[in-house]
Amino acid sequence: xxxxxxxxxxxxxxxxxxxxxxxxxxxxxxxxxxxxxxxxxxxxxxxxxxxxxxxxxxxxxxxxxxxxxxxxxxxxxxxxxxxxxxxxxxxxxxxxxxxxxxxxxxxxxxxxxxxxxxxxxxxxxxxxxxxxxxxxxxxxxxxxxxxxxxxxxxxxxxxxxxxxxxxxxxxxxxxxxxxxxxxxxxxxxxxxxxxxxxxxxxxxxxxxxxxxxxxxxxxxxxxxxxxxxxxxxxxxxxxxxxxxxxxxxxxxxxxxxxxxxxxxxxxxxxxxxxxxxxxxxxxxxxxxxxxxxxxxxxxxxxxxxxxxxxxxxxxxxxxxxxxxxxxxxxxxxxxxxxxxxxxxxxxxxxxxxxxxxxxxxxxxxxxxxxx
Length: 371
Prior knowledge:
Distance between the termini: 11 Å
Mean pLDDT: 84
Structural class: alpha+beta
Shape: elongated
Helix content: 25-40%
Largest sheet: 6 strands, antiparallel
Number of strands: 10
Strand content: 15-25%
Order of helices and strands: HHEEEHEHEEHEHHEEHEH
Radius of gyration: 24 Å
C-alpha cells in the first residue's frame, strides 16, 4: 500500500510539473457536444491574434445550467474544482483569496478511524524470513485504508449537500462502527451538531458501509469514527437552478450563430481584458455571463453567472459592449444562455492550475482510480 500511495504521489507530481493534469481537465471541460443538425463548434475559439502576455479564449456557449460535464462522478468533481479555480481567478492584490497562504480550492475531507488500544498492532510486524511486513491489519493500515478509500466518496456526499444548501458550512460527523472479520463495517452510526443535513448523514453512512478493509482482523472490533467536512475556498460550479425555484428555458440555442457574433466582436470584447491586464499584470480568471433573450432576440438582461472575476471594471466593460451587439432570435421561446471567457495568466505570473496536493489524511484522484 505504501508503494501504491508513493506511486500515485509521484504520478501526481509528474502530472503537475508537466502541466498534463491541467491540460486534461481543461480539454474535458471545454469539449462540446455536436448541436442538432451537425452544427459543430470548436471546443475553444481564440478571440483574436494576441501577444503571448494576453491570451483570451471563448468557451463553447451553452444553455443556462446545461454545461457539459463528465459522467464519471470523481473525474467530474476534479473538473469542477479546476473550473472553481478559474471562476475565482487571481490578481496582484495580496489579499485576493487565491493569493493567501491558506488558500485551498477543493473540499476539505479529514478521516479519523481508530480501534481500541491494544486491539491492533501499531504497525504490521516484519517477517524475518522474507523481510516483508506480514499481511495483518495494523492501526497504521486501518487509518491509511480508510483515508484513501473514503476521501472521494465523502467529498461527493458533501458537495451534493452543499449544492442543495449553498449556506452549508463545515463541521464534524462523529460515530461508531463495527469492523467484522470479513473486513466490512456494520452498525454504522453518525451524528453532527453542525452538519444537520439528513441526506448528507445518510450518504456518509452508506459510504462507510461500503468500505472494505484488506487483511481484516481475526475478531470483531468496535471502531471510533470522526469525519471532518469543510467547503473549499473556490465556489462549486452550478449544476442546476436553486432548489425549489421555478425555471423555464424553452428557447433553442443556435450555438454556431451565437459564436459567430461573439467572434466577430472579438477585438472590442478583448479590449476589456486588455485594459484589465494593463491595470494589473497578474490578473487572470474566468468571466461567465448569463444572457437572457426574448423571442424577438432582444437582450433582456446580462449579468455575471457563477464566476467571480477579480476586476469588476472588466465585467462592466464586457456587459456594456455585449449590449450593443445583435444576436439571432431564439426559436421556440425565450432563451437564457451562457458565454464565458478565460483570461489566461501571464507566463511570468502563471499560478499552478493543476489540483493542489491532497491533505495528508486524504487522497489524490490517482489513488481513487487505483493508480
